[in-house]
Amino acid sequence: MLASTSSSSAVDMIKARTYDVFLSFRGEDTRDGFLSHLYNDLCRKTIETFIDSEKLRRGDEIPKALLTAIQGSRVSVIVFSKDYASSSWCLDELVKIMDCNKCVVPVFYGVDPSDVRKQSGSFADAFAKHEENFKHELERVKSWRSALTAAANLSGWDSQVTQPDSILVDKIVKDIVNKLNCGTSSANLEGLVGIERRMQKVLSLFQDEIPDFRKLGI
């Protein structure tokens, strides 16, 4: 979803939909370049992708609509760029993504993964400011550090290794497609005891009746 005509209509659209992919990024770094190419390529693959509009980014707290989009997305792609950590908004978003315990694909765009993991380099500069500006909310700052470390420890993509951007975008999109295709229905059936076993039983019945049977959508 691209920028909508009003913030209220954006909220309504988010509430009405779920997404395959949620994109987390620092707009000033990537929105008009790498990020737009990634988003457009995902759309060409008919992958439902959430990209926030600037109209949603008002105030200091993440709006409920954005949290809903995070919770309702199957995969979150986090684009770590030079100034990602300078945004408390991005960091709060990251914490929420990691708390959801869903599939996360980190992309290190123009930054060393170790700087993200250890909060060094430009990330160290950002946190020096955060610890001053949020000296009365140090637990919040601590949660940002923990989320960065956890995300950077995941398997992801490094723009300094995979070049140029066109190839990087292509590989990321293929990775996302594979992850979406490999997802099982059980992720959406949490709390239904024994449902996977019953589904397998149904599948086996169809396989016995139809020799060329490959997949049943439930």
Automatic annotation (TrEMBL):
- Has keyword NAD? yes
**Pfam families, A to Z:** TIR
Gene Ontology terms: biological process = signal transduction
Gene3D superfamilies, A to Z: Toll/interleukin-1 receptor homology (TIR) domain
NAD found in the keyword field: yes
Ordered alphabetically, the record's keywords are: NAD
Q: Where is the TIR domain?
A: 17-180
Its protein name is TIR domain-containing protein
